[in-house]
Amino acid sequence: MTRSNKNLNFYTVNEIEGSLLMCESVVGVGYGELVKIMTQDGEEKTGQVIDVSDNIVVIQMFEKTSGLNVKSLGIRFTGETIKIPVSMDMLGRTFSGVGKPIDNGPNIIPEDFLDVHAGTINPYSRAHPTKVIQTGISVIDGLNTLLLGQKLPLLSGSGMPHKRLASQIVSQAKVPGSDDEFTIVFAAMGITSDEMVLFRDDFLKMGAIGRVVMFINLAEDPAIERLLTPAFALTTAEYLAFQHDHHV
Asked: Which domain holds residue 57?
């Protein structure tokens, strides 16, 4: 990207298709680039370049596109990838699926900004996982044993007790023979506001809220945000584990 592009707003959006913006007459743009979109009301929204051709740049919006006026949208290409500000102050806080505080607390003072799409860790260079995490859930401990360093996804449907199961795992999980407490990065997608409050209240009752970082994508949030939520959670977990030696 040319440096001049980073300081310019392009008013060349010619079509909105769902959560996608089609922008023409732009050069020097990179795939995966972070985009800032200024609306007719002065509100700033966020997107990402997902396709580049000779004539059209396709931008994936991470927020709602309803009510946007095509001719009034100002597009600014930042020349950056999507990054999350990280800090130990994240412990005990609740963030949206794209890392914005939603608990009425202040913005964190970042120690660093980490690319959420950074390269993965070479599995060969990792220490072989040997320590068992005891969750207290027999079907997990007996049939799908969780080891320290692994992730545990919970996929649920309507009417299933996923809230109780997730809260129970958070309260009971431990490494047998060790008194070390876990730091928990909790990511939930497509839940209601009431469910978010229930999770947070459960963590408070357990006395675990001070060691939990929550990333919550609500049911009314844009569905596309759910593609980013796991990346934000995993990046935060790696930061706490590798830069601060936490068991996550």
From this structure: 3-77
Longest CA pairwise span in the chain (Å): 63
Could you say which of 57, 77, 97 is where a domain stops? Answer: 77
Q: Give pTM, 2 decimals.
A: 0.78
Alpha-carbon gap, residue 184 to 190, rounded angstroms: 19
* Domain stop point among 77, 107, 128: 77
Residue by residue, DSSP assigns 198-228 as: HHHHHHHHHT-GGGEEEEEEETTS-GGGGGT
Per the listing, tokens 């997902």 go with: 50
| Domain count across the chain | 2
Tokens of 220: 């009314």
pLDDT digits 0-9 by tens, 49-92: 988 887 889 998 887 778 888 888 889 898 888 889 999 999 99
Q: What is the dihedral of CA 8, 11, 25, 23, to 10 degrees?
A: 110
pLDDT tens per residue, range 173-186: 777 777 777 788 99
The label of the residue with tokens 């959420």 reads 116
Q: Specify whether 32 is located in the same domain as 154.
A: no
